[in-house]
Design goal:
The protein has helices at residues 2-5, 36-53; strands spanning 7-13, 16-22, 59-70, 78-88, 92-100, 106-118, 123-125, 128-130. The strands form two sheets. It has a six-stranded antiparallel beta sheet with strand order 1-2-4-5-6-3. It is built from two helices and eight strands, in the order αββαββββββ. It is elongated and about 45 Å long. The protein is an alpha+beta fold and 132 residues long.
Length: 132
């Protein structure tokens, strides 16, 4: 999904992740503004990526709660997302993801909770392997 959507990671470490999205027609609603779902998908991807950087080997995360506030409309152009951990625990990770327009104004903010789970081993099936 990130490749199809055009999401790029510009900086990534356990304490801060920065991503970019160059908005085009794929991301717009009927009025020519960035669709709220596109803003949420961008933030969700950044949050999940950052959560993954904060779990030990052999573990994964999955989103269990997500809330997005949209503050300003966005026109086509570059959006920048900044994700930071609010809490990193053994069982849960809470993240805040802020999306900024090209003019630097805050457009949207997501607070996301990720559950930390053990990664299950891959199993073979008729259609190939399934990775949990």
């Amino acid at each position: 999904m990130p490749g199809h959507f055009g999401i790029r990671i510009a900086k990534a470490d356990k304490d801060k992740l920065v991503g970019e999205l160059d908005v085009d027609d794929r991301h717009l609603n009927n009025s020519g503004h960035v669709h709220g779902g596109a803003l949420a998908a961008f933030a969700d991807d950044l949050g999940g990526t950052l959560a993954g950087l904060n779990v030990p080997p052999g573990f994964r995360t999955t989103t269990i709660e997500s809330k997005t506030n949209i503050f300003r409309a966005c026109l086509p152009g570059r959006l920048t997302g900044v994700a930071v951990p609010v809490h990193v625990g053994r069982r849960m990770i809470v993240l805040q993801i802020s999306i900024y327009r090209e003019d630097g104004k805050l457009a949207a903010m997501m607070v996301q909770t990720q559950m930390v789970l053990p990664r299950e081993p891959s199993t073979s099936s008729v259609g190939g392997s399934v990775d949990a």
